[in-house]
Design brief:
Length: 374
């Protein structure tokens, strides 16, 4: 019999591969008659690059780009054959500017620089992982880097941010790079939210990016104005695109300007890793993520894997750092759930003991399930 382990990263502490490895090492002495397989996974956000490299043995390329405040940094993308995977957070992520978050001012321009380099290197299928963004610019930074020109009422070209989306008076597509005609774009995302409104990018996610209550209305109005300008110039209603609100609206720009397909990160990695081919004779699937909350139900890893297990009649065990909303548990088809931290702890303390706490929790679970054979 088999046990399959496919966990997301524990944000800020352990990568997907690290979580999988620790769990396997912890339970293997107790399940000596089982074959145990691990699969790195991500949902389009943090850990997407690493999971892709793990599954494909892709190569890495690092280049100088701009961070969300147009400051020079280094960022990395992965490539394999004619495919390149760019993780938005590498150039526009919250982790790059932790102590000075402000979605009114930040830009995704550096992400466009990564994409440009990949295209110049000959890659004709760009995978863009969305998640962990520090931005609310509707992807205008990416679009600007790829040749879209935004004009204000004074006929001046500018790169819109969350604060200045409302200043877009016209969008010119004539300068988009000709090479893009031969490029396929695929957006990998776990987000189903629309671009604007109560369930949109600003009201649901902007507080994580440093917005206060006063900013939310301003950011949402900017997204509404962006959508209006796209309707006028492209005859596309981005509000009707499922998941357009991902990464501060970056998914909307990629779909409207470059014809990107938006796909589920979980489905992408399940197929990439050949996970389904291992399901026969599988007794248990172990999955996990750092925190269960209402975002889990919007397509996060635990939700996706638990649904797959339910469909195949396989028990699913979830390992999570914390539970943010206990009501979520009842909505997940899980056989068991292990909560590493039953009580709230400072994040710095969680990070410090992340590996040992996970290892101990899994060893205790395995011991209670089996008789250890020395």
């Amino acid at each position: 019999m088999k046990i399959l382990i496919m966990c997301d990263s524990f944000k800020g502490s352990l990568t997907s591969s690290e979580v999988n490895r620790i769990i396997k090492e912890s339970i293997q002495p107790y399940f000596i008659h089982h074959d145990i397989y691990t699969f790195a996974i991500a949902d389009g956000g943090e850990g997407t690059l690493e999971a892709y490299v793990d599954a494909t043995q892709a190569q890495l390329q690092s280049i100088p780009v701009n961070n969300p405040y147009f400051e020079p940094i280094g960022a990395t993308y992965a490539y394999h054959d004619d495919v390149a995977l760019v993780e938005l957070a590498a150039a526009a992520g919250v982790n790059l500017i932790k102590n000075r978050l402000n979605p009114l001012e930040t830009s995704t321009f550096g992400v466009g620089q990564l994409i440009n380099h990949a295209i110049d290197a000959g890659h004709r299928h760009i995978l863009l992982g969305l998640g962990g963004s520090a931005t609310n610019d509707a992807g205008c930074g990416i679009a600007s880097a790829l040749g879209v020109r935004f004009y204000n009422k004074n006929n001046e070209v500018f790169i819109p941010t969350g604060k200045s989306l409302k200043d877009i008076a016209f969008i010119d597509y004539s300068q988009i790079r000709k090479q893009l005609l031969d490029v396929k774009f695929t957006v990998i995302s776990d987000v189903k939210n629309p671009l604007y409104g109560p369930d949109g990018a600003a009201f649901v996610y902007a507080k994580q990016k440093g917005a206060d209550d006063a900013m939310l209305e301003q950011l949402d109005e900017g997204l509404q104005h962006f959508a209006k300008m796209v309707r006028q110039t492209k005859q596309i209603d981005v509000q009707n695109i499922t998941g357009a609100g991902a990464a501060g609206g970056s998914a909307a720009a990629m779909a409207a300007f470059f014809g990107a397909e938006i796909i589920s990160g979980i489905d992408f990695f399940i197929n990439l890793a050949g996970f389904k081919s291992h399901l026969s004779e599988t007794e248990l699937i172990i999955t996990g993520e750092g925190r269960l909350d209402r975002q889990t139900l919007s397509g996060k890893v635990v939700y996706g894997i638990s649904k797959l297990g339910q469909a195949k009649g396989i028990d699913v065990l979830a390992v999570v750092g914390q539970i943010g909303d206990k009501k979520i548990v009842a909505q997940l088809p899980l056989a068991e759930i292990i909560v590493i931290h039953q009580k709230s702890k400072p994040f710095a303390e969680i990070i410090k003991h992340a590996e040992s706490d996970l290892r101990l929790a899994m060893q205790n679970w395995a011991y209670n399930k089996t008789v250890k054979i020395d």
